[in-house]
Amino acid sequence: MYYIVASDKSFEQASTDLEAAVKRHGFGVLHIHDLGATLRGKGLAFAEECRVFEVCNPGQALKVLTTDMRLNMALPCRISVYTEQGKTKIGLIKPARMLSALSQDPVLLQVANEVEGKTIEMVDEAK
C-alpha cells in the first residue's frame, strides 16, 4: 500500500530533489504543505519535519475526471518528504492500490498504474 524509501540526504535536499524530479517527469507541483512548520506555528511541539507535495499530471487527471468525476476527491497525488527519528524518508500511498478500492474501471486502473510507475520513479530519483 505504501512506497517508502530512506534517503541519506538532508530533509531540505530531498525536498528540493523531489520537486525537480516531479517536473522532469511532466508533473506539476500544485502545492507543498509544510506540516512540521504548521504544527510548530500553532505552538505544538513537533520535532520531525514533514512536507506533503501535491503533484499532478494534467493529462492523467483529465482521464480520471472524465471517466468518474467522483474521483476528484482522490486527486492530486501526494508524495511526502519527512523525517522519522532524524532519518529522511520519501514516500507515497500507491495510486493503483488506492484507486482499486474506489473503482474497478479498467481505464482508471491503467491510469493509476501509469501514475504509480512515474511517482515511484520520482521518489527513487529524489532519494
Principal-axis shape: globular
Question: Main sheet, how many strands, which sense, barrel?
Answer: 5 strands, antiparallel
Please indicate the count of domains.
Answer: 1
CATH topology: TATA-Binding Protein
Write the layout of secondary structure elements.
Elements lengths: L1 E6 L3 H14 L3 E7 H7 L8 E7 L1 H10 L9 E8 L2 E7 L1 H8 L3 H21 L1
Explain what this protein looks like in three dimensions.
The chain is α+β, with helices and mostly antiparallel strands and 127 residues long. The chain has one domain (2-126): TATA-Binding Protein (2-Layer Sandwich). The protein is built from 5 helices and 5 strands. The protein has helices spanning 11-24, 35-41, 58-67, 95-102, 106-126, and strands spanning 2-7, 28-34, 50-56, 77-84, 87-93. Strands 1-5-4-3-2 form a 5-stranded antiparallel beta sheet. It is globular and about 45 Å long.
